[in-house]
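Example S7 (structure tokens).
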């Protein structure tokens, strides 16, 4: 005991000086080494050190001075010393700390785990520690990783992180993966994420953390992905998911970390600073929106610069070369673009156009030198854009046509090129004439199809939008509306095409593909027209199209024709000042008698008409008496039986839709788009009506609790397990509905009482 006192005093003096600054730790370690070598017995030094450290184990506050002492002691224990007895000291010290880590008091338990963690992180790879002792340390830290104190869990996970990459310690990784989803403390989750080694099993867990509620955890996830997962080690789905979430993150710090990963790690290290290579790794044909976000972020950050001589023109023979190689007028030699190349050039052109417009606006709103600078920048952007785009409209059309003729493999690139049309100048009459001819060719282009093993034609695509793809239809509309920019000119051109395509349909000689093509073109016109006025007085009157095209198509024997016809009927009704009786009657009949895909579209169309024109306006169209009395609604007293309805039935709109909602034997044998169900579409429709019920003053407020109780029952029913889209929609609806108004809150309370009564 007497031998220990002077040693303890010297150790205490060294520790007191070490807690003042980290800068002197190296020098103080040498002094402590010297003291140990001068001490007569190693056991005396060890005992003296442990006794001197006891106050630290009782110190609760995490003061900076205490943390410096912890780091100093850990560095002393971990550093290699010429003294041959250092390995034995380390074993003894770790054993002492392991004993302290099991203390019932939280403070010594934390300090022991903290020092163990620091020692493990600072210990060199070739340190001489017995395997048995390491096993004890690992087992102890795995136990402490489940401690009830968050700070202890944090340091225990940090201690285990060094062993997690060893394949022999797979149980550590399993522990981390088990803890991560259920851990409530942000700092512990962050430490787990930072401690996970790279592997297929951990990649998904780390990517899931990019959706964590905590900004620091999301940021840590991107740090780990950047440092441990090369681009090539991730699947395409994971790459796009990482960038999609990171670039759209609400936190600037997380977005910045994602940009750092994308630029410094993926673009520079993995793609040799070539943005086209990065876009190829992302499969932009499948994940177009991610590709747009990536290209936009790189352009905004100045990472994409167009080299001199690079442009879209390099994919088209020059006029002089064409004159030498072809004697008569024919399609020039075109170099086809890959998907990422087409997206790359479209994004560059859009960026230049927007930058030029922005600088032009800035120049117009300022004066003097500042305005001149902005004007010069706008001119530079416009000049570069003009250099990149095809030299003539004919060249542009030839480029697009070549990609169309190349087949479905180049459809994505072709659509990107079509979107470039909105940036071209069609003010010249001759250019507009050439472009107008091309637009007519696009409108006349039928659906792509293939022949099955039984010789039947099968439409490729959604079978609703022009070209079988909504994005393609939007691209065609973008070009057509730019070429035919005058008021009503687009509608006039499209309806002339519809008149031509409708001839065999009206004569009942058309095949189902001709019906679908005609309806798709008319549907594009209906969708983009501003009002009913814009389609009146054209080549063919809307009323004539309704009677001779839409209504017969809705009764066609082919289901694909019925489906697209029902969609057009819904769009047509939205344009009408008041929906026509025949239109509403046909939609109701299609809803009741049609198979699931037809009923879903008819249901959506009826909801849209009711919400746009007011439900009672639709009922008035059908000859119903306009009244807001509750007893007029059969759903409240005696709901309709939809299975007993026929073509002569004339129920009110909401009564009919409610009857469909309570029907539980809808035929879903015919697959519908996106695995939708009739009940799912009805549930979404009534949720919209309830959210906007303040706009429908003619509807009795007493209907709201009834509808709400039915939605609650549907949400918790066993059948709704198959309707994932509906459950997701209703979960958001239930959260927001009561907060919109006092009436909604009251309806929610009554609706819950209805549900309780029904369950009882």
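Recovered sequence:
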């Amino acid at each position: 005991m007497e031998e220990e006192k002077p040693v303890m005093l010297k150790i205490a003096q060294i520790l007191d000086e070490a807690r003042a600054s980290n800068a002197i730790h190296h020098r103080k370690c040498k002094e402590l080494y010297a003291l140990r070598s001068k001490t007569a017995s190693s056991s005396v030094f060890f005992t003296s050190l442990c006794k001197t450290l006891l106050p630290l184990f009782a110190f609760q506050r995490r003061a900076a001075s205490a943390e410096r002492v912890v780091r100093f002691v850990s560095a002393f224990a971990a550093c290699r010393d010429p003294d041959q007895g250092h390995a034995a000291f380390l074993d003894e010290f770790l054993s002492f700390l392991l004993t302290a880590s099991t203390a019932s008091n939280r403070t010594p338990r934390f300090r022991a785990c903290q020092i163990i963690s620091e020692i493990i992180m600072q210990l060199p790879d070739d340190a001489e520690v017995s395997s048995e002792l390491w096993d004890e340390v690992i087992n102890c830290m795995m136990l402490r990783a489940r401690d009830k104190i968050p700070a202890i869990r944090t340091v225990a996970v940090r201690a285990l992180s060094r062993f997690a990459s060893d394949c022999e310690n797979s149980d550590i990784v399993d522990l981390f993966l088990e803890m991560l989803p259920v851990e409530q403390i942000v700092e512990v989750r962050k430490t787990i994420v930072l401690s996970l080694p790279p592997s297929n099993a951990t990649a998904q867990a780390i990517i899931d953390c990019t959706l964590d509620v905590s900004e620091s955890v999301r940021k840590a996830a991107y740090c780990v992905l950047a440092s441990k997962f090369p681009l090539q080690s991730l699947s395409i789905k994971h790459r796009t998911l990482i960038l999609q979430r990171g670039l759209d993150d609400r936190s600037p710090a997380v977005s910045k970390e994602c940009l750092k990963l994308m630029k410094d790690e993926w673009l520079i290290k993995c793609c040799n600073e070539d943005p086209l290579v990065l876009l190829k790794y992302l499969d932009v044909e499948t994940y177009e929106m991610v590709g747009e976000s990536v290209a936009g972020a790189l352009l905004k950050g100045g990472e994409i610069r167009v080299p001199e001589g690079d442009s879209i023109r390099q994919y088209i023979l020059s006029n002089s070369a064409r004159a030498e190689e072809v004697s008569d007028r024919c399609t020039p030699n075109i170099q086809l673009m890959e998907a990422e190349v087409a997206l790359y050039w479209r994004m560059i052109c859009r960026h230049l156009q927007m930058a030029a417009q922005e600088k032009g606006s800035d120049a117009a709103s300022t004066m003097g030198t500042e305005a001149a600078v902005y004007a010069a920048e706008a001119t530079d952007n416009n000049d570069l854009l003009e250099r990149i785009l095809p030299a003539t409209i004919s060249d542009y059309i030839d480029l697009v046509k070549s990609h169309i003729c190349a087949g479905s493999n180049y459809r994505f690139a072709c659509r990107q090129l079509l979107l470039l049309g909105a940036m071209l100048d069609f003010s010249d009459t001759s250019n507009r004439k050439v472009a107008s001819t091309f637009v007519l060719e696009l409108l006349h282009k039928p659906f792509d199809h293939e022949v099955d093993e039984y010789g039947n034609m099968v439409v490729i695509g959604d079978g609703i939008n022009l070209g079988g793809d909504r994005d393609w239809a939007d691209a065609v509309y973008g070009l057509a509306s730019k070429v035919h920019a005058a008021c009503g000119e687009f509608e006039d051109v499209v309806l002339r095409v519809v008149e031509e395509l409708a001839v065999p349909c009206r004569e009942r000689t058309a095949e189902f593909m001709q019906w679908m093509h005609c309806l798709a073109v008319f549907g594009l016109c209906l969708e983009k027209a501003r009002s009913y006025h814009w389609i009146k007085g054209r080549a063919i009157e809307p009323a004539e199209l309704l009677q001779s095209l839409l209504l017969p198509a809705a009764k066609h024997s082919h289901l694909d024709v019925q489906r697209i016809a029902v969609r057009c009927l819904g769009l047509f009704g939205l344009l009408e000042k008041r929906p026509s009786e025949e239109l509403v009657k046909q939609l109701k009949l299609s809803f009741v008698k049609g198979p699931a895909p037809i009923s879903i579209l008819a249901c959506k169309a009826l909801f849209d008409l009711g919400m746009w024109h007011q439900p009672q306006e639709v009922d008035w169209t059908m000859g119903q008496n306009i009244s807001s009395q509750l007893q007029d609604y059969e759903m409240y007293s005696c709901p309709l039986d939809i299975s007993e309805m026929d073509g002569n039935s004339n129920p009110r709109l909401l009564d009919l839709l409610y009857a469909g909602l309570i029907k539980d034997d809808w035929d879903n044998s015919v697959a519908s788009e996106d695995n939708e169900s009739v009940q799912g579409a009805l549930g979404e429709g009534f949720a919209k009506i309830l959210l906007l019920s303040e706009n429908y003053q003619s509807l009795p407020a007493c209907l709201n609790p009834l509808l709400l109780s039915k939605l609650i029952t549907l949400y918790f029913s066993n059948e709704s397990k198959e309707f994932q889209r509906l459950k997701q929609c209703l979960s958001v609806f239930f959260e927001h509905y009561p907060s919109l108004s006092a009436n909604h809150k009251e309806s929610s309370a009554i609706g819950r009482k209805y549900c309780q009564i029904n369950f009882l």
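Notes on this example. The radius of gyration is 36 Å.
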